[in-house]
Write a structure and sequence with these properties.
The complex is a heterodimer of chains A (about 425) and B (about 400). Chain A has about 425 residues and is mainly alpha-helical. Chain A is built from 18 helices and five strands. Chain A is globular, with a radius of gyration of 24 Å. In chain B, helix 3 packs across helix 13, helix 4 packs parallel to helix 8 and helix 4 crosses helix 12. The chains are: A mainly alpha (about 425), B mainly alpha (about 400).
């Protein structure tokens, strides 16, 4: 015993960075990806002509900002150089941890800047930055809610493929109840109740009847599409003057913050749903990582046997998490009708539930990251429609594909392995 | 308990199949009941009659009965009521059977192929392109177009198998994402010069040559339906009689045991996904080369394959992932679709009711324990194997 202590004391403890095989593979493939993007930008620089204008303010803003003009070729070349340098940093492996992540983020921003500059250069109109950001917020709001719904369900070990179905039912209910009562709060509550009911279906079939959760999600989506479609055809469409005239939410400006140039009108002149989305991200993060309930949710999703052994009711916690997820899906679903245009049309959610699922996976099942991914996907989708109006050489379908391709790349482990809770999708039986 | 060891008895017919049939039939009845309730509740003309429930109960009950009976009889008449209805049912069933076989084959290998939709879209692109861009002699053209669709579908499925085998990427997520990539790809392709009609700029591909279309036998009953039956027979042979089928079922039952026994789980996964994509691609071929309502093949457009990929999952589930079961399930949902059209025109009940019925049937079939709880004298099964993944 004493010799052991002596020899241990004699050694100089050296902290060495040791990279796992997975981390190494992820680092190298990220480097290759950045290198390819850099080469692509370098090639695009040869096909860039003219200057790119960025209109920072929309004409209706209180504070008018100037239109910034960036020279086309130098900006794209600079972006290409940044991407290539970042690729070299990744490939040599000199930096680790946060420094490396910072380099990657910086390179990503420059790649985006270079791509937009290439697309906007030579166009007669400046790129409307303010529109881009406003549109991003609008598109990202339901995605953030959907991703949070997924975060709660999947951290408790219940795969939720039916976010789409929950959105759809909530959107329908909000539209119809809003039309009948003319009241936004009542419609919002009704939307939440209906989405929680859909979540209860998911819970009862997956937790009590042990139906495979992926299959169940697909069938529930079909059911939601069928029921809302049927009720729309049978009831709402023939009486659309009474049943499809939901009011839309007014925007509420937050006095002090509204005055911030550029970001003020984008972030702080929004509907209550957008503010709720921002608060919800913090709320879910707090619930999951700072409360006893959150610890139980995560334990039930990681190792239900261990949780059961210490006396946690696995099925009970899963029920609570799925129903709580339904609340957020309901808020997200309400956005499609009373949060935007008011009226309901069949399949109004057009796959947003699945993009939310993608954001959840890209965000590695964590609330804040998943919300950031949702914002990123909203940004890309808005960029696609902006570029369409600028008549750029870029086919917008490829931009719209980006969230899906990025998700495939992520689950294939090319940019860091994306691994879910261990017991995700496994029904619990004693 | 006797001390003598006896050989395990062969399961009786009831133990082997009876419960499954009872659950299926009960699921049907329950789905029709829920559908009827939904119909009555959502019809303002009927529901207002319920004000007289206690004074004149005949009025609301009669109105409800008229509504439900009218709708369901129109559904049956539209599905099987005439030779034309039967032909329409077979025509609607053909793509469902093909894609259902694809999803079922993947289920048996333990893979959830949610990507039948994308694979069918790729299949329709491949078949259509060969159909309108090449000009070949009659029989040859059809065969080449068929192959074009099959290869495209197999490629799209193969991506999933490759990623799953090489990187461990979960096939559910990859297939869901690839569905959207496929539909974006189609919407982009439809605007490229190769797919635009000369002189037009709307996303509608040229009509395919008559030489590439599936020949019509009687109205919408066409050669493609026979191809679907052949595909079912081939799938049965592959799964139940071939070595690779044995491997696929072994991997589906227990990948660790299959690996220990010397089978390559990775290769089996790739082959299963290629075959699954091929069958789902065949569903897209059916949509591209089979006759539409006007008895001419419909040109390629964004909604050509409809929602066949998602319906296929319900077909495979109802058919318990067995080829014969999938054929029956495909015919049933095909009938639900063609009957739904008649229901809409004759009884004024929206076609979307068939979607509701389809989802409800599968939801009940998927939860035998629930059906057992609702149906008296039907004990719940000990183990529920939803996708038939057992070897």
């Amino acid at each position: 015993m004493s010799t052991l202590a002596a020899s241990a004391a004699g050694q100089v403890i050296q902290l060495d960075y040791h990279e796992s095989r997975d981390a190494r593979r992820a680092r190298l493939s990220t480097g290759v990806l950045l290198g390819l993007l850099g080469l692509l930008l370098a090639w695009l620089a040869t096909r860039t002509s003219g200057d790119a204008g960025y209109a920072l303010s929309s004409p209706f803003d209180a504070v008018q900002l100037p239109t910034v003009t960036l020279p086309g070729v130098p900006t794209v070349v600079a972006s290409a150089v940044v991407a290539l340098v970042a690729a070299a940093v990744y490939l040599t492996g000199r930096l680790h941890g946060r420094a490396l992540a910072a380099v990657g983020t910086l390179a990503g921003l420059f790649v985006a800047l270079g791509a937009v500059t290439w697309a906007a250069a030579g166009s007669a109109f400046p790129f409307p930055v303010s529109n881009q950001l406003t549109g991003t917020v609008a598109l990202a709001t339901p995605l953030v809610f959907g991703a949070l719904c997924g975060v709660l369900c999947e951290n408790a070990g219940v795969v939720n493929v039916s976010i789409e179905g929950q959105f759809l039912v909530a959107a329908f209910t909000a539209g119809v109840v809003g039309s009948v009562t003319g009241s936004i709060p009542v419609a919002l509550v009704a939307a939440v109740v209906s989405a929680v009911a859909m979540a209860a279906l998911l819970a009862v079939f997956s937790i009590k009847y042990l139906v495979d959760q992926v299959v169940l999600g697909v069938v529930l989506n079909l059911l939601a599409s069928g029921i809302t479609g049927f009720l729309f055809d049978q009831l709402v469409q023939p009486n659309s003057r009474d049943l499809n005239v939901a009011p839309t939410m007014p925007t509420i400006g937050i006095p002090g913050l509204l005055a911030i140039p550029l970001l003020g009108p984008v972030l702080f002149n929004q509907t209550i749903l957008v503010y709720l989305a921002m608060v919800s991200v913090a709320l879910v993060a707090f619930l999951l990582y700072r409360t006893r309930w959150g610890l139980r949710v995560r334990s039930v999703g990681e190792h239900p046997d261990a949780a059961d052994t210490v006396g946690i009711s696995v099925r009970g916690i899963r029920w609570q998490a799925v129903l709580a997820g339904g609340v957020f899906a309901g808020l997200g679903g309400a956005f499609f009708t009373i949060g935007s245009t008011g009226g309901f049309i069949k399949d109004i959610t057009v796959g947003n539930g699945f993009i939310a699922l993608a954001a959840l996976i890209m965000g590695r099942w964590r609330p804040v990251r998943a919300a950031l991914m949702a914002v990123f996907f909203g940004f890309v989708t808005q960029l696609a429609s902006q570029l369409q109006t600028l008549e750029t050489p870029m086919p917008t379908q490829f931009l719209l594909m980006l969230p899906y391709v990025a998700t495939i790349v992520a689950v294939a482990g090319l940019i860091g392995r994306s691994r879910g809770p261990a017991a995700d999708g496994v029904p619990y039986t004693k | 308990m006797s001390t003598a060891t006896t050989a395990p008895r062969r399961p009786t017919w009831w133990q082997a199949h009876g419960r499954a049939w009872v659950v299926t039939v009960a699921s049907f009845v329950l789905a029709l009941l829920v559908g009827a309730i939904l119909m009555v509740v959502s019809d303002p003309d009927v529901i207002t009659q319920y004000a007289y429930l206690f004074t004149a109960p005949g009025l609301p009950l009669g109105a409800s009965w008229a509504k439900v009976a009218g709708t369901y009889s129109a559904l049956v008449v539209g599905a099987v009521g005439s030779p034309g209805a039967l032909a329409a049912t077979a025509g609607a069933a053909a793509p469902l059977i093909c894609a259902g076989l694809g999803v079922g084959l993947a289920f048996r290998t333990g893979l959830f192929n949610i990507g039948a939709q994308g694979q069918a879209i790729l299949g329709s692109i491949g078949a259509s392109y060969v159909g309108f861009a090449l000009h070949l002699p009659p029989v040859l053209h059809l065969i080449v177009a068929l192959l074009g669709g099959l290869v495209a579908g197999a490629f799209w499925g193969g991506i999933v198998g490759f990623l799953k085998a090489r990187t461990g990427a979960h096939e559910v997520i990859v297939t869901i994402m690839l569905n959207y990539v496929a539909s974006m790809l189609l919407s982009w392709l439809l605007l490229t010069p190769a797919f635009l009609r000369p002189g037009r700029d709307d996303p509608l591909a040229p009509e395919i040559d008559a030489t590439a279309a599936f020949p019509v036998i009687y109205q919408q009953f066409h050669v493609g339906f026979l191809v679907a039956l052949l595909a079912a027979a081939a799938t049965w042979w592959i799964l139940d009689r071939s070595t690779i089928g044995f491997r696929m079922r072994a991997v589906g039952a227990n990948p660790h045991a299959a690996g220990t026994a010397g089978m390559s789980v990775a290769n089996t996964t790739i082959i299963a996904m290629v075959l699954s994509g091929l069958l789902c691609g065949l569903a897209g071929v059916q949509a591209a080369l089979g006759p539409g309502a006007d008895l001419v093949a419909t040109p390629l457009s964004l909604g050509l394959v409809g929602s066949v990929g998602f319906d296929a999952i319900t077909v495979a589930l109802l058919g318990r992932s067995k080829p014969l079961g999938i054929v029956f399930a495909g015919l049933l949902f095909g009938g639900l679709h063609s009957g739904g059209l008649a229901m809409q025109s004759l009884a004024g009940t929206p076609l979307t009711l068939s979607t509701v019925l389809q989802a409800l049937i599968v939801l009940f079939v998927a939860a035998p324990a629930l059906v057992s709880a609702l149906v008296p004298k039907l004990r719940p099964p000990k183990q529920t194997s939803l996708v038939g993944g057992e070897a």
